[in-house]
Design a protein that fits this description.
The protein is α+β, with helices and mostly antiparallel strands and 589 residues long. The protein has 9 helices and 35 strands. A 9-stranded mixed sheet has the order 24-23-25-26-35-34-33-29-30, with helices on both faces. Bound molecules: calcium ion (CA) (2 copies).
């Protein structure tokens, strides 16, 4: 503590003890012409040792012969420990009537000294608008244009000097910078869970973070990010701006297809739609584990402790994308292994062999049916679906998304539409629930107007009458291609020969106005009939970008009653019909 500060403390105690007699003295025998005195107090405990840049100050004045009208307040950077007014007084003062303020010293170096000067002004002076700028040299004036020179409309303040404390309260504060901190943003898909990376991704990953600084968040200056190495030899930091708190690393296929063991990633800031390229990061390891490092920097040039992702014992493995098509596995039913094998072999059998290589994303991995129903994300789904899953999709020309009766709709709603809008092509195969179904959400990306909502639950009345849909489709029932467009008739399909009954919740779907039907189910030949008519079960949109199938495609692999190539025949036709010149962000093939 400084000597002056001690004096201030002693004085205030003395004044408190002597207050009654002082008052009497002032009232009985005013002393005209005496200037006020000023006192400065630092909260919370008066510690003026080297400290952080946020200080709560309080000041007050004592006037022996009148009231205190206000204060001239100033602070300035100094080199030594200043305890008296400068001579000549060249300070820039602000006129204030309040008695306290939380000061944030504008620290832009590691260490600074700031001198605070407060001078009480008594009622011998008429006052000024709050925050008016006052200068005392060469004679007091209101520096209206704040240029430090008495000129233009500035006003002389002739009565100010006599009303002002000639000494003032002067205190020097040594301020040391405090380094910033950095932390992860909340998990956007679940605020109650920590943000994590999927343990395996393709060449896209997103991370959200936020810096803070005890000296004030407005003293943060930038962030920097590096991959796998922060050392000077091979590590490379990429510095990004303060608003870039959601970063997505993306490697275009043109680059990863030609890369060796490591590759450079483009770094985007923000959501998919609002994305901005902010730079590149070298050193992303393909088919290997990777680590990201992120730091915040403040205006004084100090960095936060490093934020490392993944953290703890988590790992993040980056797989090199190799295929032209991404198989999105959103299917957790008992026959999941059969379904997966059927899709992989049917794609491999497409003539030409261009789908022999298939990349798979198991978005249902780790989820129970209950999890799916409550909208939880699988652990391979990037928590920033927008932009990370959209950018992952953009690595592929086509997506085949197959799901059980509980599609990951929250994920699909955020990702499928932007993918289609940016050139992607999708085959989406789903089942429906027995009593409720997600018609509204499906419409966000599927070219359908509605889905039959008839009760298909086990407690539905025994037929007759037949209803619009069924939960039990006999083996070998034929799925006919729509023939209204003779130039583009799809191969016939049929339900597999076993089991004898397929337990799928089939509901007729109704096309969006631009879309056309691709397939309808044969009429029900059972007696009594369980479903009415020949329900439409597949549509394609008017732009030829998405095919939506309301039954699981993997049970339509009947090569006797369907196309001789079975499901493969359908996939060959569908993938070739998709705007054939389409290439998403790719280079080879
Ligand atoms: Ca001026
Ligand atoms: Ca700081």
């Amino acid at each position: 503590m400084s000597t002056r500060f001690h004096i201030a403390v002693v004085l205030i105690l003395a004044l408190a003890l002597l207050l009654p007699s002082c008052k009497e003295h002032v009232a009985d025998d005013p002393v005209p012409g005496q200037q006020p005195r000023t006192y400065l107090w630092l909260f919370p405990d008066g510690d003026v040792s080297t400290g952080v840049s946020r200080k709560h100050l309080r000041w007050w004045g004592e006037s022996p012969d009148g009231l205190v009208r206000g204060y001239l307040f100033s602070y300035t950077i100094v080199t030594g420990s200043v305890t008296t007014l400068p001579q000549p007084d060249t300070l820039r003062y602000t006129w204030v009537t309040k008695n306290d303020s939380t000061l944030l010293f504008p620290l832009d170096t590691l260490f600074r000294r700031f001198a605070v000067v407060v001078r009480a002004v008594d009622d011998g002076f008429g006052g000024l608008p709050e925050h008016a700028i006052v200068r005392m040299n060469p004679a007091p004036y209101w520096d209206k244009n704040d240029n430090g020179v008495y000129d233009s409309a500035d006003e002389n303040l002739t009565s100010l000097s006599a009303a002002t404390d000639p000494v003032g309260a002067v205190q020097t504060f040594p301020i040391r910078n405090t380094p910033p901190a950095i932390g992860l943003l909340p998990n956007p898909s679940d605020p109650n869970a920590a943000q994590r990376l999927p343990d395996t991704t393709f060449t896209v990953v997103a991370i959200g973070f936020k810096g803070s600084d005890p000296d004030g968040d407005n003293t943060l200056s930038s962030y920097r990010i590096a991959l796998n190495d922060t050392g000077a030899t091979t590590g490379q930091w990429l510095t990004v701006g303060l608003r870039d708190t959601i970063l997505t690393l993306v490697v275009p296929r043109s680059r990863s297809d030609a890369a060796g063991a490591t590759v450079s990633a483009d770094v985007y800031s923000g959501s998919f739609l609002g994305r901005r390229l902010v730079g590149q990061l070298t050193n992303l390891r393909l088919d290997d584990q990777n680590v990201m490092y992120i730091e915040a920097r403040d205006v004084a040039g100090e960095y936060s402790p490093v934020l490392k992702m993944p953290s703890g014992t988590d790992r993040w493995y980056v797989r090199r994308p190799r295929a032209k098509i991404l198989l999105v596995n959103d299917y957790t039913n008992f026959d999941a292994a059969t379904a997966r094998t059927t899709y992989l072999s049917s794609l491999a059998a497409v003539p030409g062999g261009q789908y022999a290589q298939v990349d798979v994303l198991d978005i249902g991995l780790g989820l129970t049916a209950t999890d799916k129903e409550s909208g939880r994300y699988g652990r391979l789904v990037p928590q920033f679906v927008d932009p990370a899953l959209i950018q992952t999709f953009m690595l592929y020309d086509n997506i085949l998304w197959y799901t059980d009766q509980l599609p990951s709709l929250g994920v699909a709603q955020l990702s499928v539409f932007p993918y289609l809008q940016n050139g992607g092509r999708v085959i989406f195969s789903t089942m429906f629930l027995n009593t409720t179904d997600p018609r509204g959400a499906l419409k966000d990306f599927a070219p359908i107007d509605s889905v039959s909502s008839v009760d298909l639950s086990p407690t539905r009345p025994v037929p007759p009458p037949a209803v619009a849909g069924d939960s039990r489709i006999p083996a070998n029932y034929v799925v006919y291609a729509d023939s209204t467009n003779p130039a583009s008739i799809y191969p016939q399909l049929a339900f597999n020969a076993s089991p004898s009954i397929h337990s799928v919740f089939m509901r007729p779907i109704y096309r969006r106005s631009d879309a056309r039907y691709l397939y309808h189910l044969q009429a029900d030949t059972r007696s009594p009939q369980r479903y009415v008519g020949a329900p439409n079960i597949a549509v394609i949109d008017g732009q030829n970008t998405i095919i939506f199938v309301g039954v699981p495609l993997h049970v339509l692999n009947n090569t006797t009653l369907g196309d001789p190539q079975g499901l493969s025949g359908f996939l060959a036709k569908a993938l070739s019909q998709f705007s054939p010149n389409q290439r998403v962000n790719r280079f080879i093939f």
